[in-house]
Amino acid sequence: MKKLVIIMAIGLTTLMLHSQDSKIELTGKVKIEIDGLSCPFCAYGLEKNLKDVANIKDIKIDVENAFVLLNISEGKGIDEDLIRKNIKDSGFTPRKITRVDDE
Amino acid sequence: MSRWYFISFLLMVLVNCKDLGKKERQEWVFERKIELPKKSRPLALVKTGDDIWFSDPGNLRLIKIDVKGNVLDTITGIKRPMNIDFDNGKLYVPGFLTDTIWIYENGQKRPLQLNAEPNAPAGLAVNGYTIAIADFYNHRIILQIGKKVSYLGTEGHAKGKLYYPTDVKIAKDKIYIADAYNNRVQVFDFDGKALNVIGDQDNLNVVSGLGINEKYLAVTDQENSRVLVYDLNGPLVQILTSNINYPTDILFDGDILYIANFKENSISVYSAR
């Protein structure tokens, strides 16, 4: 019984560590394609919400082509889920996220 | 025989009355476009004397032009200037990103002392000591008269509720509100009582900007690239569609109607016939 508890504890710890590892951290310059970004009031509203997220150095909103460019502070990272949630909370649907350097 | 004379006379009076009605009612016809500097995206318009100021939030600036489109002045450094107003020689500009209202006068800009905290001011109207501000994220209108502040509307969809208001106009004892994402205009009195709803039956899709004069209210139907003109009491008068591209604001100037085309560098000019 004692062995079983130990094995389960190890298994749970491994699972937790693994789920933490699976978090995607955004770094450098990132382009986020967003559905429905055409309305200027909403687009600049999203910009207003994103500017308060820690470690974002600079934001560029392209209303006509419906994407956001994030410049993340050097040596820092931002959880992708946090950014996706922020975009959803602002009333938009985030799509593809790519490193600009990679394009 | 006299009965026939009487009936003929009555018919003539009726026909003439109908004609008179037609003459009183204006019809706007597309005239031309004013071409703006290449990368401009005009969001809002105000007239100052013979000239026009337009806000260009995408480029963080405001530009003053003459009616031919020649640039006369530029203001920079305001983060996302949205629906503007002009009163008593001063240009009032809401800074959407910084929650600041700027006053531009004689080449200088300074912040307005506001006794309220807007979250993303999207538009404003000024009349002497009265200022009304469309408080976008708080779903309300801030009404400051002198130093006294009150609020019109709360978040929601029923009559008297607002959902992301973007523009506001003051006309005598009434306040007209672009209730943008409820797709309608709401009319309030100064005590916060909702008096009327305009446009809710006309399939509007994002009412972002308003224009008003003594007789008419013009409304941008942003996502459908239309402008709808209403009698101030509500009945629809005319729908404008020609040469309009994603309109975000309208400006009445006598018999002329200017429309900001946000998706291109132009202002459409209509004239009354």
Please describe what this structure looks like.
The complex is a heterodimer of chains A (103) and B (273). Chain A is of the alpha+beta class and 103 residues long. Chain A is 40% helix and 30% strand. Chain A has a single domain (24-102), classed as Alpha-Beta Plaits. Chain A has helices at 2-21, 40-50, 80-89, and strands at residues 25-26, 29-35, 56-62, 67-72, 78-79, 93-99. In chain A, the strands form two sheets. In chain A, strands 3-4-2-6 form a four-stranded antiparallel β-sheet, covered by helices on one side. Chain A has a two-stranded antiparallel ribbon with strand order 1-5. The longest helix of chain A has 20 residues, at 2-21. Chain B has 273 residues and is mainly beta. Chain B has a domain at 37-204: TolB, C-terminal domain (Neuraminidase). Chain B has a four-stranded antiparallel β-sheet, with no helix packed on it. In chain B, a hairpin with a 3-residue loop joins strand 20 (210-212) and strand 21 (216-221). Chain B starts with a helix and ends with a strand. Classes of the chains: A alpha+beta (103), B mainly beta (273).
